[in-house]
Design goal:
With about 260 residues, this protein is of the alpha/beta class. The protein is about 35% helix and about 15% strand. The strands form two sheets. It has a seven-stranded parallel β-sheet with strand order 1-2-3-4-7-8-9. α5 runs parallel beside α6. The termini are close together.
Length: about 260
């Protein structure tokens, strides 16, 4: 718990303009010895952001300055805290080659990274499953059931873990139960333990680690970590590393959920 491995920045279109230094100072005050800035990587070539506000990821033209800014902050805080430059990379079904090309071009600039699923392919369309309760409700209607949305999420997540994205593929899998973000409003009839155990088996087989994400605690329609306690405990029993991530999009969110998660 001395590391926060999932932090966003002012480069996030759906975040805040809090400076990198604000996050670093907050991390130091919380007692962290290491942090990773993991901004949403630019979306792959040819993929159109399906989020209503088209604000899912950093713009491609900002990427170079992003890494330069992190290098500047690294130098300023040298000896006080370890700062990693990283990205949260979206796995998007059907765009594996484009993602691999992006990673091959930019992987050498990253100290740390996360691979996440936010977009689900349904027929010929893509949808951002965590954008809002309204978007999620439309997905349920289009899919025919909540269970079908969950099943497609876990299917896509499994594809992401197995995907060959080259030598710079992120080895930490992001918030593996993000599909539960709106569970208080749209509860599923079951916990999908079999599907989650299958995910954990594949994470273990690949030698990957998990983002133990505290952001769900602050979401009023979720109120639990990603993954929940039972899945985190199962992962730990399998020897899978759980790396705490605040998934903060503003400095005051640093440490969110941490008090609830310290028992593991």
């Amino acid at each position: 718990m001395l590391k926060d491995g999932h932090i966003h920045t002012p480069y996030c279109p759906h975040g805040t303009k809090d400076a990198l230094e604000d996050y670093v100072e907050k991390a130091i005050n919380l007692g962290f010895k290491e942090i990773s800035f993991t901004e949403h990587a630019p979306l792959p070539e040819g993929f159109e952001d399906p989020a209503p506000a088209c604000d899912s990821a950093m713009r491609k033209e900002h990427l170079e300055k992003y890494f330069i800014d992190i290098s500047r902050v690294k130098a300023a805080y040298q000896g006080k805290i370890r700062i990693n430059a990283g990205l949260e990379v979206d796995y998007i079904e059907g765009f594996e080659q484009e993602i691999r090309k992006f990673l091959e071009m930019n992987g050498r600039y990253m100290d740390d990274s996360i691979l996440s699923v936010h977009f689900l392919k349904h027929g010929s369309r893509y949808e951002c499953l965590d954008y809002s309760p309204d978007v999620f409700a439309k997905m349920i209607e289009e899919y025919g059931s909540i269970e079908a949305v969950y099943m497609n999420y876990f299917r896509t997540l499994l594809l992401s873990i197995k995907a060959d994205l080259g030598p710079y593929k992120p080895r930490r899998i992001g918030h593996i139960t993000l599909v539960k973000k709106f569970q208080k409003k749209y509860p599923a009839d079951r916990e999908f333990r079999e599907e989650i155990y299958q995910i954990l088996d594949e994470v273990q087989n690949q030698g990957y680690e998990l983002d133990y994400n505290g952001a769900g605690f602050s979401k009023p329609l979720c109120k639990e970590s990603y993954p929940p306690d039972w899945a985190a405990e199962a992962a730990a029993q399998k020897g899978i590393s759980l790396i705490y991530g605040s998934d903060s999009h503003q400095a005051k969110e640093m440490g969110q959920g941490l008090d609830w998660m310290k028992h593991l």
